[in-house]
Design brief:
The complex is a heterodimer. Chain A is mostly helical. Chain A has helices spanning about 5-10, 15-25, 30-45, 55-75, 75-80, 85-95, 105-110, 110-120, 125-135, 140-145, 150-180. The radius of gyration of chain A is 18 Å and the shape is elongated. By secondary structure, chain B is an alpha+beta fold. Chain B has an eight-stranded mixed sheet with strand order 1-6-7-8-5-4-3-2, sandwiched between helices. The relative contact order of chain B is 0.12. Classes of the chains: A mainly alpha, B alpha+beta. At the A-B interface, helix 1, helix 2, helix 3, helix 7 and helix 8 of A face helix 1, helix 3, helix 4 and helix 5 of B.
């Protein structure tokens, strides 16, 4: 086997699940995520000669992320509309409303609700959260993968968590009202 | 909450603060109950996400197709190694408490081909236990670091002036290990240098003291933490972190080379 391909298999393929998990969370469809990852990995193989780092995971994730966005642009452009970043980041600059997330409610949030609440986040917030919490990447790495400044990564993450806490609080409050009726 | 405070709190939760801002955050948490409430809520949210949000593993037929296209054997790691990698990646090792799980992980570590590390099957040494206690205690209190500096030329003289020996304080930033600072600690009844480094959000404590016969790096897993002991050129070290065994092994090699 060609040594370059051999090295690719050893260095890049162990991160296949990370790639699939990201694509799956970005496009929210198992079948499409598979297609996207397959194409992205083969593209990564063609460009592997240019890879110089020691950790292939962020490198592969950046390629998968671009492929997922290209797919969204072609198939569901509506989802990228709210990504018009200036608007988003201005909206985020304000102080948080006086909202006191109930730690207990968060702690008890059910698996299904939590996954649905994350899936419902705008894609820019969702990806920051997935890269941070499920891939354990640093702000710097997330900034590189998403091609955004570190400051934007910080505010997106903090906004993502605020939205999520609000969603969980709202869901819990609604079900409480429901049960009191 | 003020926007800046919210960002500060989030960066604190993510372990992205420099030592100075981190110490300020500790002080604020102690002084401001509302801030502490917000902090607890953030921690609860993170724990909920890490425990309950789906991590979608690549389907086996996708791995198979790609491996064939590339012309290699399928490289899907065995399930046990995959779980280990994922735990390490998600920083879950802290939560892995039972002795059974710990020994299972030790076995997996062997499977990960850490050839240069001796993986011990016998009980953890007294020094390793002490080192772990020092590491976790330091993370709990306000002052994990007495001299906060990323400059080895500040940290080393500070330690030399306060200890009866001069420990190595290598600059490992080029290797992705950031020096946060140092403190004095007690290990096995002896005052030692505790160097504090960081890799991503994982804090690494390296306890260095003189003495000890030459000894190859040896890894133990205690209550989910990885502890590596080694001795070289008249210096002994015990290194503790929740960082995965592979990267902590790299760190141990670098530190040993500087001794």
């Amino acid at each position: 086997m060609d040594p370059q391909r051999e090295r690719f298999a050893a260095v890049v393929l162990p991160h296949l699940s990370a790639a699939y998990n990201l694509a799956r969370w970005l496009v929210r469809d198992a079948h499409d995520a598979e297609d996207i990852v397959q194409d992205a990995v083969l593209r990564a193989l063609r460009h592997f000669g240019g890879f110089r780092g020691s950790d292939a995971r962020p490198w592969l994730l950046a390629i998968v992320r671009n492929a997922s966005y290209a797919w969204l642009r072609a198939r569901r452009p509506g989802e990228l509309h709210d990504l018009n970043a200036d608007e988003l980041d201005t909206a985020m600059a304000g102080d948080a409303p006086d909202f006191n997330p109930e730690t207990v409610l968060i702690r008890q949030a059910e698996k299904q609700l939590l996954n649905a609440a994350i899936a419902a986040l705008p894609v820019a917030f969702r990806e920051a959260l997935i890269l941070r919490e499920l891939e354990d990447l640093s702000y710097r790495e997330i900034a590189q993968i998403t091609e955004t400044p570190i400051g934007t990564v910080m505010s997106r993450l903090s906004r993502a968590r605020r939205l999520l806490a609000q969603a969980l609080g709202a869901i819990a409050n609604a079900s409480e009202r429901e049960s009191q009726r | 909450m003020k926007h800046d405070d919210e960002l500060w709190l989030n960066a604190g939760v993510d372990g992205e603060l420099d030592p100075e801002r981190s110490l300020q955050l500790q002080a604020r948490l102690a002084a401001d109950p509302a801030f502490k409430t917000a902090w607890d809520a953030q921690q609860a949210l993170r724990a909920a996400i890490r425990e309950r949000v789906a991590y979608h593993e690549a389907p086996a037929d996708l791995s198979g197709r790609l491996a064939r296209a590339i012309g290699s054997e399928p490289v899907t790691p065995p399930p046990s190694a995959r779980i280990f990698l994922r735990l390490a990646r998600r920083g879950w090792l802290i939560g892995v408490a039972s002795a059974v799980t710990a020994s299972a992980l030790t076995a997996v570590v062997v499977g990960l081909n850490l050839g240069r590390l001796n993986v011990g099957g016998e009980p953890a040494s007294r020094v390793a236990e002490d080192a772990l206690a020092g590491h976790t205690r330091a993370l709990l209190v306000d002052r994990p670091i007495e001299v906060a500096s990323s400059d080895q030329h500040t940290v080393r003289p500070w330690l030399s002036a306060r200890l009866s020996f001069s420990p190595p304080v290598p600059d490992l930033s080029a290797h992705g290990f950031e020096l946060l600072g140092a403190r004095r600690d007690v290990l096995d009844g002896q005052t030692v240098a505790a160097l504090v480094y960081r890799r991503r959000q994982h804090v690494i404590s390296a306890f260095v003291r003189p003495g000890g016969a030459e000894r190859e790096a040896r890894l133990a897993t205690i209550r989910g933490f990885n502890v590596i002991e080694a001795a070289h050129a008249g210096m002994a070290c015990a290194i503790v972190s929740d960082l995965n065994a592979k990267e902590l092994g790299d760190f141990a090699d670098l530190l040993r080379a500087a001794m």
